[in-house]
Amino acid sequence: MKSKSSSINTTRLNLGRYDNYSLLSDDELSKFKQVCHLKSNTIYCDKLQILLIKSGSAKLSFFENGKEFILNFLSQGNIALLDKNISMEFLENSEVLEISLYKVQKLLKNEKFSMSLFNSLIRQIVLQRNIIKDIVFKNIDRRLYSFLISLANEQNEFIRDKQVITLPFSIKTLSELLGFERQSVSTAFNKLLKTGFLSKCGKNRYMINLI
């Protein structure tokens, strides 16, 4: 087995690890509200809020009529923009820095933090545009295919020159990332196995066979 090195890509599972809070002085940090959240806590914001994950991890989701659509996952150093339409669920005990959109203006004199904030928001805009494009133009088979290829490229693991993916979540979570019913995603996934695009090579591990 071998792993080929590559630079960190911005994906829905990995926005990259950025220690944005380290760019702030003690005085600037004092303008944030520091909050600790337990695993499984879910928060909503009535007004626009900027949240910075100081430690831990979370996921951003839309909820509507009992259904969930996962936008992306967050880890230490990631910045998220919350409003009344989106929720953040913590996947482990986490520490978060919160600040309103109005108050963050006072931090923009810090050029390094401003650029980091700008770059983070740009990455998320591009990511969300790609999500919209997939939803508008791709059916379930093509969307699942694209997602698995993206996951394989991120994990960057090979066996005998073939890419291998490890599914780090359940079919239920996969369906919430793709925006389809669980049964539909399960059927599409099994179709990839039957057609030979995927072959199982361990627990939750699959080899991609380009066909």
UniProtKB/TrEMBL annotation:
<dbReference type="GO" id="GO:0006355">
    <property type="term" value="P:regulation of DNA-templated transcription"/>
</dbReference>
<dbReference type="InterPro" id="IPR036390">
    <property type="entry name" value="WH_DNA-bd_sf"/>
</dbReference>
<protein>
    <submittedName>
        <fullName>Crp/Fnr family transcriptional regulator</fullName>
    </submittedName>
</protein>
<dbReference type="InterPro" id="IPR012318">
    <property type="entry name" value="HTH_CRP"/>
</dbReference>
<dbReference type="InterPro" id="IPR014710">
    <property type="entry name" value="RmlC-like_jellyroll"/>
</dbReference>
<dbReference type="GO" id="GO:0003677">
    <property type="term" value="F:DNA binding"/>
</dbReference>
<keyword id="KW-0804">Transcription</keyword>
<feature type="domain" description="HTH crp-type">
    <location>
        <begin position="138"/>
        <end position="211"/>
    </location>
</feature>
<dbReference type="InterPro" id="IPR018490">
    <property type="entry name" value="cNMP-bd_dom_sf"/>
</dbReference>
<dbReference type="InterPro" id="IPR036388">
    <property type="entry name" value="WH-like_DNA-bd_sf"/>
</dbReference>
<keyword id="KW-0238">DNA-binding</keyword>
<keyword id="KW-0805">Transcription regulation</keyword>
<dbReference type="Pfam" id="PF13545">
    <property type="entry name" value="HTH_Crp_2"/>
</dbReference>
